[in-house]
Amino acid sequence: MTFWSLSPVWIIDFAGSLGMIIVSTMCLATTRKIIRKAPENALANYLLWFTGALFAFSVSRSAGHILKHILFFSGHFDLWKQLSPISGSINTITFVIIGSVTLYFGRMETIMNRMARDREKISSFSRELLELNKDIESIVSERTRVEMALRFAHDVRNPSMIIGGLVRRMKKNIPEGNPELKKIDQIQEQVKKLESLITKLDLSEKKGKWKFSALELSALVEEAMAAVADEAERRGVILFLDRAPSPLTFQGNRHLVKIALMHVLRNAIEACGSGDTIQIVTEAGEKTVLVRIEDNGPGIPPEMVQHIFEPFFTTGKGTTGIGLPYVKQIVEDHNGSIELASSRDKGTSVVIVFPPLLGELSRKG
Question: Which residue, among 214, 337, 357, 220, has the nearest Cα to 282 in the 3D structure?
């Protein structure tokens, strides 16, 4: 009577255990197909380990139940009592593996997400550097053409003036009707054409054809701060921004101005130590817009301040200043100015000033 009353339970247990083995096998086979298509995918690797651990658990647990029923009906239940602890220990090990895999890949997911964000930042910086490189190549190419034109105009101007003066003097001394006068007129005409060509080549007041547009200074400062935030965090330097309440608009090249601000910020970060602060202030001056970058680092001796914008200047504190001459050139090419003040144990202050857009009224930020 007891046998027939428990038979449905045993049948369900037997069928469920067999079904669990089949389902876990199918899951493991599916994840193996996924891992073949994306072997470097972290989630696919996690699923493979997880389903593998579940497969091991299902085989251990289900096979144990099936073996238990077979031994019971065959009259060898005492043998199951000896095998039961082994089956239980295998089940416990599979639980540990499942937990370990979950914890490990949970941490790995955090790392992978951080790597993905860093990869996106690197990609963004690469695009900006590529655009900056194109701007620099354009500037260098244009300046080379201008310098060649100026040099050529200078070399030709003096001989043409001398020839023109001599021809005019000779013309005054030749009487009317002289057949040589026609030749003199032809020479004078060619000299005038040469002088006209020199005037076209005189590009001393010509400005570079950069891609200038209306820019907002505070927004550019925020972008530059975001670009160097990781460097400041690694060195323990704190960045503060005191943003002007109203927009500070000026005309310039976005990539060049941003790279100039990043150079100054990086120099300040390298000069500071852990716990130091860098305050960035954007404000409107008298018919200007400006950004002030102040740090409370060790500062620069007064005798070195006047040389800070010289190429390859070093303060002896790890900052080479290689980028500062380039920064000064960028600011001056935007009709702006840059000033630096520093002293030992009082920190350094850099003020960059740009003229506002034409027609902008002076504002108090």
Answer: 220
Strand ranges (E), 141-285: 213-216, 238-242, 249-252, 277-285
Would you state the pLDDT for residue 207? Answer: 44
Which amino acid is it at 281? V
pTM, entire model: 0.48
Residue 332 DSSP symbol = H
DSSP structural state of residue 246: S
Sheet architecture: strand order including 238-242 = 238-242, 277-285, 288-295, 347-354, 337-343
Q: What is the pLDDT of residue 188?
A: 77
Spans of the chain below 50 pLDDT = 1-3, 203-209, 312-322, 358-365
Q: Which residue has the tokens 């070399």?
A: 155
Count CA atoms within 13 Å of residue 220 on its CB side. 27
Task: Give the homologous superfamily in CATH for domain 213-354.
Answer: Histidine kinase-like ATPase, C-terminal domain (3.30.565.10)
Maximum alpha-carbon separation in the chain: 152
141: how many CB neighbours lie within 10 A of its CB? 10
